[in-house]
Amino acid sequence: QKFFEKQEINLEKLKKKGNLVHLELKALIGKRDVVGVKLLKAFGFLEKELEPFGLKFSEWDWGQKRKADFYFVVKNKELPEFEVRSGPPLKLKDYVKDFKKKNKNTFTKNGKIFAKIKVKHRKLSSFVKNSVNDDYFKEKVKEVVKINV
């Protein structure tokens, strides 16, 4: 294996692994190390965001120019309609009351409260578009040039 040599990303191979998400970005202008850290943070943010879709592969590429590419392969193209969010134990009454205020559809199980929450962006494409419009992401990159899902 060659560890420190740049490997070309083969989009066709990635598509065979699952659902490919490819973003072309313009990096910010500035010191190379600062810009690189911002891109890395933006990449990490999307990586974490895509975990519910069953993240199988993630990679990013940034050359000397201002163009950067993020690659993600996920297992699922769509999330379930609802997710179950875990709340505090029932014995912590103030926290339970607060949890019930924030979440409408709650139920208890094994001494704990849970909420059934409708998932806003179930489809991968709308989820990615929503994620790149997050303020945290937008302050790390200059522009999203293209999104391929």
Keywords:
four-stranded antiparallel beta sheet, three-stranded antiparallel beta sheet, Alpha-Beta Plaits, 2 domains, alpha+beta, 149 residues, elongated
Characterization of the model:
The chain has 149 residues and is α+β, with helices and mostly antiparallel strands. The protein folds into 2 domains: 96 residues, Poly(A) polymerase predicted RNA binding domain (Alpha-Beta Plaits); 37 residues, 2-Layer Sandwich (Alpha-Beta Plaits). The chain contains 5 helices and 7 strands; from the N terminus they run αβαβββαββααβ. A 4-stranded antiparallel sheet has the order 2-3-1-7. The relative contact order is 0.22.
Category from helices, strands and their pairing: alpha+beta
Level of helix content? 25-40%
CATH topology of the largest domain: Alpha-Beta Plaits
**Spans of at least 5 consecutive residues with low confidence:** none
